[in-house]
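## retry 2 of 3
previous attempt timed out at serialization; input unchanged, resubmitting
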Amino acid sequence: MGKNAKNEVTVGLVQMSVGKNIDTNLNKAIKSIEEAAKKGAQIVCLPELFRSQYFCQEEDTENFRFAESIPGETTTAIAEVAKSNKVAVIAGIFEKRTHGLYHNSAVLLNANGSLVGTYRKMHIPDDPHYYEKFYFAPGDLGFEVFDAQFCKVGILICWDQWYPEAARLAALSGAQIIFYPTAIGSFEHDDSKTKNRQQSAWETIQRSHGIANEVFVASVNRVGREGQIDFWGSSFVSDPFGEILAKAASNKEEILLAKCNLSEIENTRHGWPFLRDRRIDAYKGLASRFLD
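## retry succeeded, writing output
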């Protein structure tokens, strides 16, 4: 891991709206990465599947045209901007692994432009307007942690954010910041109470992962209306106590920056030694689907 005298990392989250033209979306992302780097970001994260609108609202084989290999066109373009701006970038990719086999993935490109690694979304939803099982095979690379040069990061994607097991395994593998590239919102017919409850639960569960594991959490969402979904933005960064360091608006594009003092992880764990007191001898049931 690269040296950082202040033990501080500046995270940049690109909360963006996504149009129908995939090249326009890529160019917007590149410009946003450049802007975030100019503002001091060292690690920039883009939303889930940022190159296209959220096509999983329907089951249509035509949408497989958005898939690409890793490395591929998107990783090449992002690698160039990462290297020229000396910033690490996490980018969501609709990965074509081979003919008929696809994943919802995210890559980490380091500040020198190198492809550090790929994470494949482990938990795949199949809900109204979130028909991801039609498109994506579950991830098979596990919950690997990557050296982002400035710190160690875990990458989990959207539906993964509801599962404490995923965050725990990332933290046990050394993640200091867990990134959640996301595409989530409310349906057009939902009333305001329902929308507020859903959004509050979404934020609360992720902050709780930060608290339980005493790590930083960085969640980046898209914004705007696509099909039946109003994406609620509200990207945020929280610290090991679950406190919000920075939060974006719910209704506009925004480049969100937050300084993460990594020494807070150890300091927090000294006071609340959750990892020390885990009863690893008593958790065998977690490997079962259900305990009768």
